[in-house]
Design brief:
- The complex is a heterodimer of chains A (311) and B (470).
- With 311 residues, chain A is an alpha/beta fold.
- Chain A is built from nine helices and 14 strands.
- In chain A, a hairpin with a 2-residue loop joins strand 3 and strand 4.
- Chain A is globular.
- Chain B has 470 residues and is of the alpha/beta class.
- Chain B has a nine-stranded mixed β-sheet, with helices on both faces. A five-stranded antiparallel β-sheet of chain B has the order 2-1-7-5-6, with helices on one face. In chain B, strands 3-4 form a two-stranded antiparallel ribbon.
- The longest helix of chain B is centred in the middle third of the chain and has 18 residues.
- Chain B is elongated, with a radius of gyration of 27 Å.
- The C terminus of chain B is likely disordered.
- Classes of the chains: A alpha/beta (311), B alpha/beta (470).
- At the A-B interface, strand 6, helix 3, helix 4, strand 11 and helix 8 of A face helix 1, helix 2, helix 7, helix 8 and helix 16 of B.
- The complex binds S-adenosylmethionine.
Chain lengths: 311, 470
């Protein structure tokens, strides 16, 4: 997924090959991750697609099924991955993810700790930020989820950047051998305050911690716990509103003598005399935008804090 | 997995301790005043009516807190190390406020509550009383303090503390803090780009090490700097522009980039791309000589736009003359020596790099150009992106992006098109007093994102041709 391997870098010359992970795009809200395998097929409502037909084609191309239906084949990115991964838990989405990565001040080479791993949606973006020389240590106490996450990082080619550990972080804290090594720590746990003490031990001075919690009571409690060893404690909520764009014909408003040059006062006068909006067909098209009907109204609160610098 | 070399390289880039000549963000009194400065032997900061040398900040960890003191050689900043007791005191205070029973029904505000006069305070100062001692004296001599609610007591203490015992927090200039600070103080200079919006741009454009990111940064360099920070000295961020003079990317200088990162920040006039995208690959193969004259003129023009003349005050000092030393001469010279030898960000892209982009395309594109129509840029630069590459466009207004999105759809140039508007709200979290901040920024602008597709009868064919010839 990441261009750390120059031969896997996106390019005009790079074509899809056997064994690649591609994102099959039907519609913006209908995508799927597929591992290309010469002998395999993909079947969906558009028909049957032979993987063999895809090999050698450029990324971003349109491919057809036996019935003439088509899909696009895209190179995976963490944003696309978040939309196609299998939900084993609640996951974080792009708005929270991008804000977290920015506020944790992650750059190539950083060491970041995370718990819980969940479905690895955030982990993928953490890995992108610290590649090629940094590392993500992510922990979940749920064995199966950890195994599934490891498999996913294998598929997406991130396993050299991510280590998944099985551990009860609220009960045991982070492993002692990571003490003082972390540039940043991220918590998405039901009782984050239980892990804050350990997180403080893992962080370098001035390192940043972030805790994501859906409920304000969790935030309250975490913030109280943070106060002793951290400063600059701030809580945010971030959301995205998406827009629909449509081209529409708008009828012009025509009053009898209403030429474009006529003075507004005159128009007003006429209008009050009861002239009507007259429809004509010479209306021009305009592109219009409006917010999409439904949107996420809440995901969670993001609480950030910096480890105090004690000499 | 990561070599020793990589680790060393990393610790150079992610330095957590200041050094002479480094750029810092000073946060005075908990965000009341924010200013960028460069730490040199002679640089100062003015707080109230006194000048404080910044020398004591050199060699301290970022995140250190300083208080003002009257030293033997005049006013100075000295580091405060937080103690365990201080935090216990805070805990106690919080418990108290939970059981609040006082209220302010009897409070009369008539300015007679304070018995300490200005002269008294001056006297204390002359005798060498610390700022904190003055604050305590003010509290002791306030007739109303005892009757205030603990919430107002805290407010009173804070107000006096800011005046008589100001605190300076030493912060690291990172994309986050730089963007935040500009947005707070000079939003127009960064095209009103809010930090959550900037973070979305970096995500949607899949910025990561080893990527080649094409940007149109007409917002002062905050975008270029943020991308370069994520590249960490690998790949390239290439700023393209129409005409002869690139827009200023001055803000890049506030980031503490070393040579290896600055070298990765390049520029390229759009014309240079288009010239050879007509299948005419001549000027790639031609030796420098032929175009040498032209280039140099462009370069010298560009130099005035991109690089600061060394004797000018740094763009980072957005307030007052933090750079000037006592004799009134700018102190930039001390570090100018170093800067001079160092790689400058924003040099023209090398022929090798250009050749590689022409063959392979850029891995993503980010546009932040408040004054130029989004669609007219996109249709020109999209052909330079690899197939399947993500792109993202920021604009303060919705309409230009709506039109652009519509055109991209009609021309079948991209899929996954989406316009999003980020929304960011901060909360005050305090025992029994948690609520959203009363003020928030209502507009973080709009973001159009999408993925370029391979389309047999669309642009890029010139590139394909070119590739075959090579
Ligand atoms: C909501 S999910 C995290 C989702 C993740 N941020 C993502 O974007 O995919 C929370 C995870 O925390 C794990 N968890 C809960 N308590 C834990 C504990 N004490 N120690 C470690 N992991 C824990 C759960 O198993 C679950 O997988």
């Amino acid at each position: 997924m990441l261009p750390t391997d120059p031969t896997k870098k996106l390019s005009f010359k790079r074509n899809i090959s056997d064994g690649d992970l591609v994102i099959v795009y039907e519609k913006h809200d209908n995508m799927k991750a597929v591992k290309v395998c010469e002998k395999s097929i993909l079947e969906n409502r558009f028909g049957v697609f032979k993987h063999a037909d895809w090999i050698g084609k450029p990324y971003g191309c349109k491919v057809s099924s036996h019935k003439g239906g088509f899909v696009y084949l895209l190179a995976p990115t963490p944003e696309l991955w978040t939309l196609v991964l299998s939900h084993r838990t609640q996951i974080l989405y792009v708005a929270d993810i991008s804000f977290v990565v920015m506020y944790l001040e992650l750059i190539p080479g950083c060491v970041v700790l995370e718990s819980g791993t969940g479905s690895g949606s955030l982990t993928t973006s953490l890995a992108r930020a610290i590649a090629p020389s940094g590392h993500v240590y992510t922990f979940d106490f749920h064995e199966q989820r950890a195994v599934a996450a490891r498999e996913d990082f294998e598929r997406t080619g991130l396993s050299s950047l991510v280590t998944v550990g099985v551990r009860d972080i609220q009960g045991e804290g982070f492993p002692k051998d990571l003490t003082g090594l972390a540039d940043a720590v991220f918590l998405d746990l039901p009782q984050p305050w239980l892990a804050i003490g350990s997180a403080g031990e893992m962080l370098k001075p001035d390192g940043v911690l972030c805790s994501f919690s859906p409920c304000i009571e969790q935030v309250q409690r975490s913030s109280e716990t943070l106060a002793s060893k951290f400063t600059d404690i701030r809580t945010f909520e971030v959301l995205l509103r998406t827009y629909e764009v449509r081209e529409g014909k708008m009828d012009h408003c025509q009053t009898e003598a209403g030429t474009p040059g006529s003075r507004p006062s005159k128009r007003k006068h006429r209008a009050s005399e009861g002239s009507q909006w007259e429809q004509d067909n010479s209306g021009s098209s305009v592109v219009m935008a409006r917010p999409s009907g439904e949107a996420k109204g809440h995901t969670g609160y993001l609480t950030f804090a910096r480890l105090k610098c004690v000499a | 997995m990561s070599t020793v070399e990589e680790q060393e390289n990393y610790s150079n880039k992610n330095r957590r301790i200041t050094w002479e000549g480094c750029s810092v963000l000073l946060d005075i009194n908990d965000g009341d005043r924010l200013l960028f400065s460069r730490l040199t032997a002679g640089s100062i900061v003015k707080i109230g009516n006194k000048n404080y040398p910044l020398q004591p900040l050199i060699g301290c960890p970022f995140g250190s807190m300083f208080q003002v003191e009257n030293g033997a050689n005049g006013p100075c900043l000295s580091r405060v190390i937080p103690t365990a007791e201080a935090s216990n005191a805070e805990d106690k205070k919080e418990c108290d406020s939970k059981n609040e029973s006082r209220d302010n029904r009897a409070l009369i505000d008539n300015n007679t509550a304070q018995t300490l006069t200005g002269d008294d305070i001056e006297g204390m100062r002359r005798e060498g009383a610390s700022g904190n001692a003055i604050v305590e004296a003010l509290i002791a001599n306030s007739a109303t303090f005892e009757n205030k609610t603990s919430f107002s007591q805290e407010k009173y203490r804070l107000k006096k503390q800011k005046k008589y015992a100001p605190k300076v927090l030493l912060r690291r200039p990172f994309a986050r803090s730089i963007c935040d600070t500009y947005f707070k103080k000079y939003p127009a200079r960064i095209g009103f780009l809010r930090v959550d919006t900037l973070s979305l741009l970096l995500s949607f454009a899949n910025v990561t090490a080893h990527s080649d990111v094409l940007v149109v940064d007409m917002i002062g360099g905050i975008l270029t700097g943020a991308v370069a920070e994520r590249l960490g000295g690998t790949g390239y961020v290439c700023n393209t522009y129409r005409g002869d003079s690139p827009s200023s990317i001055e803000i890049v200088r506030i980031f503490n980039f070393g040579d290896e990162i600055n070298k990765r920040i390049v520029r390229l006039p759009l014309a240079d791309f288009c010239a050879s995208s007509n299948g005419d690959s001549k000027d790639i193969e031609l030796p420098q000589a032929a175009s040498g004259v032209d280039n140099s003129t462009i370069e010298s023009q560009a130099a005035s736009g991109v690089e600061n003349p060394t004797n000018q005050s740094d763009p980072v000092s957005m307030e007052e003359t933090t750079m000037s030393s006592e004799d009134g001469k700018p102190t930039t010279e001390t570090c100018a020596l170093k800067v001079h030898k160092a790689a400058k960000p924003g040099e023209k892209a090398s022929e090798d790099a250009i050749k590689s982009w022409k063959e392979n395309g850029f891995s993503s594109l980010i546009i932040a150009a408040p004054e130029v129509d989004a669609w007219s840029i996109v249709k020109e630069v999209l052909p330079f992106l690899s197939f399947s590459a993500p792109f993202v466009i920021y604009h303060q207004y919705l309409q230009p992006l709506a039109t652009c999105m519509h055109n991209l759809q009609v021309e079948k140039m991209a899929i996954g098109l989406q316009i999003t508007e980020p929304w960011l709200r901060e909360y005050q979290v305090l025992p029994s007093r948690t609520h959203p901040h009363m003020q928030m920024s209502a507009c973080g602008g709009y973001v159009l994102s999408g993925t370029k597709i391979h389309n047999d009868n669309q642009p890029n064919k010139d590139f394909v041709l070119l590739v075959c010839y090579n």
